Amino acid sequence: MSIKNTKSKKKHPILKRLLLSGGALALLGCLCVLGLNLWVTISTSGQILRLSEEDPLDDNEKNHDCIVILGAGLRGNEPSPMLRDRLDKGISCYQNGLAPKILMSGDHGRDGYNEVQVMKQYAVNAGVPSQDIFMDHAGFSTYDSMVRAHDIFGLKNPVIVTQEYHIYRALFIGSRVGLDCTGIPTDFYKYGGQPYRTFREYIARCKDVGTVLLGTEPVTRGEPISITGNGDVTNEQ
Q: Where are the alpha helices (DSSP H) in the chain?
């Protein structure tokens, strides 16, 4: 047997072990992602309230302190289709007496992009009194929005309005930062690009499980703002 063939045979067991180790790590990673996603969805599924426009609300469903509408981006100076659906559902919940106040939580992190102002103006145009609408200008992420809803605005039992694929993570975070929250999904139709968003959400759930467990600080804190007051105090922040 030649020296060359002997060396080649010695390499194969090493390569095989590397492939097996890589496969085992990949499988473990997939199981971790799946397990964390199941934890997030199963632990919060009982907090979701599914309402049609015709459903009457009983008194137990009207004991919320605020409706939180999470940002979903702008198209120019208009709400994106997903954000518009969140706004329409949140406004409907307010008009039906689900809660006396609305908190718009979104991105106002740079000049020329004021997501929450567009959200508030949309609601005002729909007939919601300006003083009943608060704006969280530092809702840069779902985690930041939930932490600030509790710590800055003093919410206790809000309604969270967003699409169903996203609602589980919002409820998971909210429940673990001190909120007794209920979720209302806003899936009025199928959105383009949803498979990609769903994939990103699987990863985001895993990330935010770690964020919650570590007790990470939001990007911005600030002074407390009472949700029982006049929402116009948040107009100029």
A: 3-44, 81-95, 115-125, 142-151, 164-176, 194-214
Residue 1 has pLDDT above 50, yes or no: no
> Would you give the DSSP letter of residue 61?
G
The DSSP call for residue 141 is: S
pLDDT digits (tens, 9 = 90+) for 123-178: 999 999 999 999 999 999 999 999 999 999 999 999 999 999 999 999 999 999 99
Q: Count CB neighbours of 33 within 10 A.
A: 14
Distance, CA of 164 to CA of 80 (rounded, Å): 17
Total Cβ atoms within 10 A of residue 59:
7
Residues 6+ apart with CB under 8 A from 105: 68, 69, 70, 71, 116, 135, 136, 139, 145, 148, 149
pTM of the entire predicted model = 0.86
Long-range CB pairs of 54-61 (<8 Å, 24+ gap) are: 57/96, 57/97, 57/98, 61/98
Q: What is the mean pLDDT of residues 3-26?
A: 64
**The dihedral of CA 36, 149, 124, 184: what is its sign?**
positive
The tokens for 138 are 């530092």
Least confident of 91-100, 187-196, 211-220: 187-196
**Tokens 């600080």 appear where?**
217
Q: Which residue has the tokens 């990103």?
A: 200
